[in-house]
Amino acid sequence: MDDYWTSDEEYSDKELPLPTEILKKVGNSDKVDQLLQLYGKIPVPGSIPIANLDNSPQIHRPNIDSRTTAEVQSFDFDEFDTNVYTYDNGAPELYNFGGQTYISDGLRFKSITDNKHDYPKCPDEYIKQPKDTKSRLIRLNWAVKDDGPVVEIPDNELLIEYPFKLDDFQKKAIYHVSRGKHVFVAAHTSAGKTIVAEYAIAMALSKGRKAVYTSPIKALSNQKYREFKNIFDSVGIITGDICCNPAASCLVMTTEVLRNLLYRGDSLIGELDVVIFDEVHYISDLSRGVVWEEVIIMLPKVLRLLMLSATVPNYMEFSDWIGRTMQREVVAIVTKKRPTPLVHYLHIHSKNFLLFNSDGFNQNAYHQMYNFAKTLKNKTKGKVQRPKAITPEGEIQKLQALIKSLEQNDKLPVILFSFSRAKCETYAKCMPKLDLSKTQSERSKIHLFIKESLETLSDTDRNIPQLKFIISLLERGVGVHHSGLLPIIKEIVEILFSRGLVKVLFATETFAMGVNMPARSVVFTSIRKHDGLKNRILTSSEYTQMAGRAGRRGLDSVGNVFIFCVDSPPDLQDLTMMLIEKSTPLKSRFRITYSMLLQVMSRNHMSIEELMSKSFLERNRARNMPVYKRDMFRRKRELESIGEIICPFGAPTIEQYMDLQLKFREMLVPITKLLWNPKFNIITPGRLLRLHSIAYVSSYCTGVVVTTNGDSLTCLITLPSEYKIKDGGDGVDIVYSASLIDQSISYYLIRGIEAKYISGILDSFLADGALNDTIQSFKLDGFNTDILELVALSLVSCEVSDDLVVLPKELKNVPLDTYERFITLREINRKLTGNQCHKCSMREEHFEMSLNRGNCLKEIEEISSCIKEESLEAYPEMMARVNVLKQMGFLDSENVPTIKGRVATYITTTDEITLTQVLFQNILKELDPPECAAILSAFISTDRCNDEAPIPTLKLQNARDNIFEIHRKIYILQNSLGIHTPIEDFDLLCNFSLLFICYQWACGSPFPEIMEMTTLQEGNIVRAIIRLEELCKKVEHVAILMQDGELADKMQKTSDAIRRDIVFATSLYLK
């Protein structure tokens, strides 16, 4: 129980007004207004009468595991509120689902023995809705891990018939999907997560609803579209440049497309039943991860979510965030089992060493390998060193020998991962004798497929050097795959590989992202990569993602992974970290963008503060928010219960007195520690002290030192006998207590008094010298109670001076500020002892009331600082960006988007602020379509490129200079308002490196000629031109909204001019 709920029994709808004078103590008038609003009536969610709501949202009760269920048999419910929550007003944050862990008759949890499915973690039935309750629970955790037995769905109830046996994790996920729950599935690469996605789609279609499958990359979307087309009748796809059958019941799209649909309130959202997020670990991506958070936050709460991820360590934390955001429980299903187990080898000098398998890391094998490599190295001492460059005699020769070995041992096909596009091509190019298409049948299939794939291309495009090079490799059963290839080439390679016609594939790590194309073996040509900042060892997640491509389900008994070493082995520590260390946890990449601000402020979905507060970045704050509200209520109620202090002197002197006391205590601590030194002979037995916050005293009492023990004292104090017992304080023990003869005064022997409990070292000793001598010899072990009574009587009868002790002469060399502090203390002491409250009989009562009130106000302010929007981590950046938008005329004084701001919301793929300024300054007016393409290319390329190309026309030169000036002014404004972006990163947002290439392409130059003008690879150019065409369409739409028919017509012509030839060849997955 305690893992999922915490008590909210003291939270009610009763309004507790705060006295104005209390509010004024907290801060200025603005703060008073904020607190009045905050401390006003806090609405408390009431019960949700399910019987009266046919379409009510899923109500989530406590989920009790077997251990708790055995201990808890029922709940005692009191009274419920009558508030009704529907989908329109959202689910409440605070739930009235129960009280404490005790039970009323007639209400039971299903225990393990009660449950016919024997399912402890997620029982078939939740708690029935109670009719009467006052006690409440706040839900702390919204994620439940299903690690219990499998619950089988009867075959006649399955929506999809499977010709093979499902794995346990698939059965569990399908079971929960069938029950309409949010499900998070984490499993290794190629484990079969797509099976669950297919079932979720089938569930939606069976209800007459729609399903959306989202992926992080367009290539994966294309592949999934083709897969789903073979299963379901009505499938469509929407990506940046493709829109095929958008009215279909199953839609495949990129996450950015779904975000845009949500922002504009597309009617499609209302037709959905489930949204599937594949590769959800992509939320950690630095540049695009924020999109996942936006989508999840904005999705309607009625939808079901299915999240598919690689294995991550913080899956419960992420699932909890999803559940809290959607206000519904999330079932997390995690499996570390691979359908095909992996065996990891370290390959060096033509020999394989078994490094890691199901038995764990083989350290002995590593040491054998190390000694083997060292022996070979010693044998070659004195010989001419081999060249380090890639040559047939060096690295490539050894790599080719490994491939031949794999072929001979029936371990093909193989994927060889490299972290350089150039190396992938070099490896393939330098192995001309590597021919793995052994039969005429295989060669014919390859030739025929390539011919069919290229039939729509022109002769010019078919003669592109990159295409001819890759085809020459494919004819030998060898492939290359990296992001610099033309899209059609990558698809040809992927499909031939999936058909088993490519036996050796040289690929970068992008091939491991999402695409389900396993091999029998995987080879790492290196385990080091450059991540843009430094050259480093692969992380465990990166290695696992790529290594997971080894082993084909149903075909291979094991998957073989080889770490290829040229000469020297990798470091043992690096290897163990990479192989054994936990995978990288999911991290929030939430950040505030101009586009996000304008999109949210243009619509009534939610406020930007609400979007921020629901982000994964703010998950801990959101988790604690109901508790903050409960604690705020408790502090308010405590304030009310303190009541008003009625001073007999007719003035609020106790507040002044308390402030002086607290200041005095704080300043005295370092002086006390200084005087504690035995050489000064000040804090010794017999010395009188003022003590506070011990035993029964909040303000102060007088005590006498009985013994000293290092940094603590044992003191005797006397108090009126009617004082009520309270805690002694941290580390303070009451050793002995008794009453004096007349029973009106009690005395206490207290041990463990430290410097922090002393509020005055008085210039007094007990008057009786003989008694002082007795105290000097007092021992705690076996002490005489008669002596204690004499000390108590003496303390009651003696006159106690209010003056502080005089500093000893030995302190003449202390720093000046210490003397100044002591002088200040004397002045405060004078004011304290002169205050009317100092000797008042009601001092203690009023002091405690004032102290409690001050503590309550302090806690209220602290809680308020956690609740208010300013506590959001991204709040300062949000305010800075809002100010930029205001000053540039994108927002009015009420933070409502202006016409300029609304125009910017339609430009979602680029630097919308600079481009909107360009449009409103009419810079494109004098340009023709090719020149428009050249100018707009500045907003689609974020690659660093050192190409120096001429500016084709004077109009282009002038337009470019004007845009540079606009962009520079925005940078200066941002910096002045606190948004500090490195100038090199900001310049990439407006980057004219592709200006000449895009101009030539829009003028009709063929693609081979374009490639002769740049050092960029073909794939980069194609992606840039496709994004340029998307941007032209957006600008055309904006021009129509601005009623600029001339610009709209020009953008249409620009789009037509660049949408041609191999750049826009139809994806093979869509044919």
Automatic annotation (TrEMBL):
PROSITE patterns: HELICASE_ATP_BIND_1, HELICASE_CTER. SMART domains: DEXDc (SM00487), DSHCT (SM01142), HELICc (SM00490). SUPFAM superfamilies: P-loop containing nucleoside triphosphate hydrolases. Keywords: ATP-binding, Helicase, Hydrolase, Nucleotide-binding. Residues 174-330 form the Helicase ATP-binding domain. CDD domains: SF2_C_Ski2 (cd18795). It comes from the Eukaryota. One of its GO terms (molecular function) is RNA binding. One of its GO terms (cellular component) is Ski complex. InterPro entries: DEAD/DEAH_box_helicase_dom, Helicase_ATP-bd, Helicase_C-like, P-loop_NTPase, RNA-DNA_Helicase, SKI2-like, Ski2/MTR4_C. This is Antiviral helicase SKI2. It comes from Babesia microti (strain RI). The lineage of its organism: Eukaryota, Sar, Alveolata, Apicomplexa, Aconoidasida.
